[in-house]
Amino acid sequence: MFTFEHHTLRKQGVVILDDISLHIAAGERVALLGASGAGKSTLLQLMREQHPDEIAWCPQDGAMVPPLSVFHNIYMGSLDRHNALYNLRNLIYPKAKERRAIRTIANALGIGEKLFTSIDRLSGGQAQRTALGRALYAQKETLLADEPVSSLDELQGGNLLRHTLSTHTTAVIALHDQFLALSCFDRVIGLRNGKILIDQPAASLNHDDLLPLYGQASPT
Amino acid sequence: MNNPRAHNTTASHYRHISLVLAGFALLAFFLADIDITTRSPGTELGRILAGLIRPDFFATDHLLQATLFTLSFAVQGVALGAAVGFVLACFWHYRSVRMASATVRAIHELFWGLIFLQLTGLSTLTGVLAIAIPYSGIFAKVFGEFLEESNSKPAQALARNSGPLSTFFFAKLPLVWAQFKVYGAYRLECGIRSSAILGFIGLPTLGFHLETAFRQGDYSAGAALLYIFFLLIISMRGWLHARLIPIYLLAALLYAPPLSSNTGASLWRFLSHDIMPAPLRSGYSGDLTFSRWALDLVSQQAVPGLVNTLVLGSAALLMTGLIAIMILPLLSRHFSGKLVRSGANIFVIMMRTTPEFLLAFIFLLALGPSMLPGIFALALHTGAIIGHLTSRIADQLPIPSNSARGLNRLSFEVLPRVYGNFLALLLYRWEIIMRETAILGLIGIPTIGFYIDSAFAEFRLDRAFFLIAVSVILNLSVDGLSRTLRNRLRLHA
Predict the structure, then answer these.
(1) Hey, of B152, B170, B172, which one would you mutate to test binding to chain A, going by the most A CBs within 10 A of its CB?
(2) Interchain contact B166–A (C-beta under 8 A)
(3) Can you give the residue ranges of every domain in chain B?
(4) Does B170 touch chain A (CB under 8 A)?
(5) Does any CB of chain B come closer than 8 Å to the CB of residue A62?
(6) Are strands A170-174 and A29-33 parallel, antiparallel or unpaired?
(7) Which of A205, B336, B445, B491 could potentially form a cystine with B424 if both were Cys, beta carbons 3.0 to 4.6 Å apart?
(8) Angle of helix B173-197 relative to helix B356-367, nearest 10 degrees?
(9) CA distance B369 to B348
(10) Predicted TM-score of the model (pTM)
């Protein structure tokens, strides 16, 4: 589904991605690990461009519209399924059908109470749940997400991550939580300074194997 | 070798640009005609003050009517301007849209009023369009820049085929809607000012009765009109609520339907015949050639008008800066106690509420026709605005209480910190000063507006049109120069 052959990317002379070769098949669930600045977001962005219309996209931040409600921010995942008139109608006065569908999603994410509260009045964690809600409501087979649970604690984050993964057949998710990466995914790709350092099944890795990604020597 | 005496500080850049601007302005002062021509300006000023102390609210007939017309024109004009400006702002990335809005806003409401008097007569439609057209250009610019500067991440995060309309209404508009509303409210205040002074060209708003009362020396009646005008603007906070706007608009449309009895036939004649230079019209029987016509117009009217406009505007700019810096300590908590600050605040509110044009008219009665009333009016109005805004920035500065006081504090602690903002505001207002300078011609100060007004009075619409085009070029040049200076100094208000 996603393929890179010796791909190198420079921005203003700085190497962001360095000779990346990668193949991700449909049906795989991949965790993307690496220190900040390793190139995870850029790689996700490039994956998105390979199949722009088939992807539920959940970027790191800034993608929510702060003055709009949780309902509307989740609804925005479905803008491409309807004509503009239908979308405008739901912006001004949401249809009962849409309310029901989105309330179900919001309840599952634990923000059902806040459905008609605007994002600028919510906590960072609640905004992040809304962003996941939007990705869910996009109703696509493939999910690309960048640190979708970074503002939640490990338990809640794990639950939401598993819920989100169960609704997509293919997923590539950038994470900083190594425990979640090893426990929820089939495959782990580790980046360091724009290079792929690790690309293995999650089952064959343990915590110590991941240390080199963060500049620490593996104890073995 | 580095020259040890070369200054490489931000302050020296500010000083440099200030000195250049002040040098030009001083030159302008020497060229300007700033005589006091009334025999005893003190007496007249005294009578005006006496009138201000004893306003007479029953001297003017149709006072309520004039107030309601003022509000109706303003509400309709600003609403139409905001609607058109909003649509234009959605296409702000097109150069042609930016050029068109720059051109329509370079022409003052009063000039638009004079143009529409020819087409739609003394009607509500004239008043509404005179406000709506330049305001649509202003709204387009401000809304367009809000949209441009808004966060683009939400739109980029949407599915690629979400459609431009849905993307705009979900991921763009909500981000700037609050700013739109605040700016719209400010523009309505400006609209009431514009509507009032449209009375000076004959429309039945407060300005019409104000001009009559002041010209007849009935200063008590004039003062009453002035106070009603103040009340309208100062009370806005109390009656302007987003939910009530549709009701106000409906009321304005019912009270003064934007109609005109003139038919569209005169529009075609106006465009194809009236504003064409006379020697180029079909069926022209005179013996002027076009080049002769243009040369006469340029040498006898456009050049003197432009020179006077530049001289008056530049002198006013210097005086504006001086007044703003003098007002600053009176308004700022770093220098003045509560009593002084509230006194200065009342003065500032009065000065910025009164349109420059109206202040100039009142000073003109006291001091007689010269550039002096114009300079005073522009400088007091604009200086009050800039002083107020700069003092708000200054008040956010933390200054240790043991540091210098008085003039030392002003010149070492406060001014160096706020001078960038001050200069940016001054350069921003420069274009507006020039725009206002042009219309001072309508009350007899010989700026370019004087020649435009005379051409309209003689029904020489071709000349009026040509001179308006000249004033547009002047405004666009000043705007461009101001932007260049701001960019070079990397200034932001």
Answers:
(1) B170
(2) yes
(3) 10-39+267-493, 57-262
(4) yes
(5) yes
(6) parallel
(7) B491
(8) 20
(9) 26
(10) 0.85
- The token duo for A79 is 């803008």
Q: Tell me what pLDDT residue B39 has.
A: 73
**pLDDT greater than 50 at residue B1:** no
Question: In this structure, are residues B359 and B379 in contact, taking their beta carbons and an 8 Å threshold?
Answer: no
Task: Between A170 and A212, name the one with better pLDDT.
Answer: A170
Classify domain A2-214 by CATH architecture.
3-Layer(aba) Sandwich (3.40)
Same fold, B10-39+267-493 and B57-262: yes
Locate the chain A residue with the closest alpha carbon to B179: A67
ipTM greater than 0.85: no
pLDDT for res A176: 86
- Residue B218, token pair as written in the block: 């009935």
| Residue range B217-259, pLDDT digits in tens | 899 999 999 999 999 998 988 899 888 999 999 999 999 888 8
Fold of B57-262: MetI-like fold (1.10.3720)
Cα B139 from Cα B479, distance rounded (Å): 16
pLDDT, tens digit, 9 for 90 and up, residues B252-300 = 999 988 887 766 557 777 877 788 888 887 777 777 788 888 888 888 8
Note whether B435 and B106 are within 8 A (CB): yes
Q: Are B433 and B382 in contact (CB under 8 A)?
A: yes
Best mutation target among B160, B165, B166 (most A Cβ atoms within 10 Å) is B166
Q: Which CATH number fits domain B10-39+267-493: 1.10.630.10, 1.10.3720.10, 3.40.50.300, 1.10.730.10?
A: 1.10.3720.10
